[in-house]
């Protein structure tokens, strides 16, 4: 049954939309010079620590919505030697997040995942990870067998004042995270879309330094910090056909500046083939997605010294993406960097990148493959605030969750909510709220008066008191007692 309004809900609503308007018009100052913002969190840790390998300060854990700390039993090869992780049990709710305040900008966000005895009884958990409300990583069975699958990163714009990373349970064990890094990169880095890629996330599939002696981070390769300390893996163990290794210590022209700040060393080694032999890399990928491919070349062979001596085509799954690539001609000379990029839709589960000779053999220095993920539209800010107020006034137990965005990722909406997309406004709204029989005690209050699209509320079989404002949405169903 509906009650008469006790608060002036139209005033509340206009204050709410006024605040939203003010926030959306805050002009952020972009730091183009100086040091990039860099936040490194040692999840589950109660103290800051300086890890000797890279001399970065790892901050003690903060900014999380729940969970517990557990020790890491085994050394994780390739990762900074942190000793704890944070994990989220069923009692912590189905979604838990980190919300870390950062200035407006473009960031590389990296996670390292692991699990152990205390957090998961030594059974590998499976779970989803979202950034800014968009599902980015799904940890599939076997992820912990390979460091490349437990250390993942993506490039994303943060324009709401805080980086939000959420862990979503899928009923297979407790999500667990060792570290979270939020590293600022140049605003124009990896620009692939016109006018900009502010509404896409580039998820790293693979970042390869061909014939590198070993895998490493930007810091190991003396890279500019504005490059986001990207991890480059060697292609030694990858499927690539037969190839030879080539290395030089000569310096490389045009390699390392804005906006992508590549480390010079990735151009100082290459995988090559002899006359007439192809080189190819195959990657397991999500089907029917767009992939942004970045290819790096610098002619470092002593026998190829002028143009037209080495020419090749580049194919993705038998489709030509570049023809007659002549590194010296396109770069303007030997020992000079050439970067090519192309975004392609790949239908199958394999991306086969093939370099096919036209003149002599192949030379390739580095390869980057990113999955292009469109960002989700988020829930109307005002509605998020109302739900947070409701969560508070009802004293919602943490097992119900309600962290991150209420409606997205669409695969993981909050418990008890029915969301609907408003095409005109480009945002999600709450149309249904069903928290019946959850043992809730508290007041429903005026908080839900901002849920202007709400059509149905079922709060029956709880101990809820207080009045429901009459002006709530256009309710056709309401059950409180
Ligand atoms: C995340 O942090 C920002 C900035 O500090 C704050 O405005 C926002 O309300 C926080 N979001 C959540 C879900 O806590
Ligand atoms: C791939 O890119 C094309 C062209 O930009 C776009 O129309 C299409 O929706 C994208 N597909 C996916 C799955 O993102
Ligand atoms: C990416 O490729 C496009 C199309 O060839 C080109 O216009 C653009 O300049 C390239 N971007 C970079 C950063 O190299
Ligand atoms: C990839 O392409 C190469 C060269 O065309 C071919 O030899 C190889 O079998 C292909 N691999 C897959 C998995 O399709
Ligand atoms: C509301 O919840 C009660 C259980 O408390 C249930 O019996 C009833 O069917 C629900 N109403 C709707 C419309 O779902």
Automatic annotation (TrEMBL):
Q: Which domain of life is it from?
A: Eukaryota
Q: What is this protein called?
A: Uncharacterized protein
Source organism per entry reads: Diphasiastrum complanatum (Issler's clubmoss)
């Amino acid at each position: 049954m509906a009650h008469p309004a006790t608060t002036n809900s139209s005033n509340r609503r206009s204050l709410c939309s006024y605040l939203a308007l003010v926030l959306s018009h805050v002009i952020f100052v972009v730091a183009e010079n100086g040091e990039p913002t860099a936040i490194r969190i040692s999840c589950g840790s109660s103290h800051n620590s300086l890890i000797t390998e890279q001399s970065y300060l790892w901050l003690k854990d903060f900014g999380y919505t729940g969970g517990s700390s557990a020790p890491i039993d085994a050394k994780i090869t390739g990762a900074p030697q942190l000793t704890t992780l944070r994990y989220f049990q069923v009692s912590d709710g189905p979604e838990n997040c980190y919300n870390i305040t950062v200035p407006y900008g473009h960031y590389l966000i990296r996670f390292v995942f692991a699990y152990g005895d205390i957090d998961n009884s030594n059974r590998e958990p499976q779970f989803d990870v979202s950034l800014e409300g968009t599902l980015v990583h799904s940890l599939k069975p076997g992820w912990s067998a390979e460091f490349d699958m437990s250390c993942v990163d993506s490039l994303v714009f943060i324009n709401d004042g805080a980086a939000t990373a959420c862990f979503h349970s899928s009923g297979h064990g407790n999500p667990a995270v060792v570290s979270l890094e939020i590293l600022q990169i140049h605003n124009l880095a990896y620009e692939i879309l016109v006018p900009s890629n502010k509404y896409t996330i580039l998820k790293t599939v693979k970042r390869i330094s061909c014939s590198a002696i070993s895998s490493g981070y930007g810091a190991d390769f003396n890279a500019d910090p504005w490059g986001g300390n990207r991890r480059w893996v060697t292609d030694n163990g990858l499927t690539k056909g037969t190839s030879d290794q080539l290395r030089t210590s000569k310096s490389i022209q045009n390699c390392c500046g804005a906006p992508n700040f590549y480390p010079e060393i990735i151009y100082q080694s290459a995988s090559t083939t002899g006359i007439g032999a192809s080189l190819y890399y195959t990657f397991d990928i999500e089907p029917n997605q767009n992939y942004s491919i970045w290819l790096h070349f610098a002619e470092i062979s002593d026998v190829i010294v002028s143009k037209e001596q080495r020419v090749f085509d580049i194919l993705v799954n038998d489709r030509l993406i570049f023809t007659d690539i002549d590194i010296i001609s396109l770069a303007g000379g030997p020992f000079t960097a050439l970067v090519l990029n192309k975004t392609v839709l790949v239908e199958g589960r394999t991306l086969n990148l093939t370099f096919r000779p036209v003149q002599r053999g192949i030379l390739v220095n580095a390869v980057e493959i990113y999955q292009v993920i469109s960002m989700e539209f988020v829930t109307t800010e005002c509605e998020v605030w109302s739900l947070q107020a409701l969560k508070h006034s009802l004293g919602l137990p943490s097992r119900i969750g309600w962290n991150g965005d209420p409606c997205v990722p669409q695969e993981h909406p909050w418990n008890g909510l029915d969301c609907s997309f408003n095409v005109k406004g480009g945002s999600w709204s709450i149309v249904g709220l069903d928290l019946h029989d959850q043992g809730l005690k508290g007041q429903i209050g005026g908080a839900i008066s901002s849920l202007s699209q709400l059509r149905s509320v079922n709060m029956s079989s709880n101990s809820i008191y207080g009045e429901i404002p009459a002006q709530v949405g256009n309710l056709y169903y309401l059950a409180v007692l």
